[in-house]
Amino acid sequence: MTMLVTGYKTKKELKAAVGQRLQYQETSMFGEEYRENGTFVVARRPHMLGGGREFFAQVTMRDGLIEEVK
After folding, report:
1. pTM for the full model?
2. What's the CA gap between 32 and 63, in Å, rounded?
3. What is the reported pLDDT for 27?
4. HSE (CB half, 13 Å, CA atoms) of 31?
5. 2-6, 54-58, 66-70 — which is least confidently predicted?
6. Angle at 46 between CA 54 and CA 32, to 5 degrees
């Protein structure tokens, strides 16, 4: 499963947000996927959010802040 990221029109913008809180929207019907500490996959879906580019990324969080984006 992936979470929908909001507020980032490109993966470059998401990478520039390292050290900040993740702007996201939960999309799973099976419970929350967001974790303050850990790694998970996120997606930008322009057809759902309007504008921007579609991308997928692996995000690592530490203490509620973005630590790394791959």
Report:
1. 0.84
2. 17
3. 79
4. 1
5. 2-6
6. 85
Distance CA 49, CA 68 (A): 23
The span from the CA of 61 to the CA of 38, in Å, is 5
- Per-position DSSP letters for 4-65, written without gaps between them: EE-S-SSHHHHHHTTTS---EE---SSS----SSEEEEEEE-HHHH-SS--EEEEEEEETTE
Which pair of structure tokens corresponds to residue 15?
Answer: 């990478």
pLDDT in tens, 20-36: 999 998 877 888 888 89
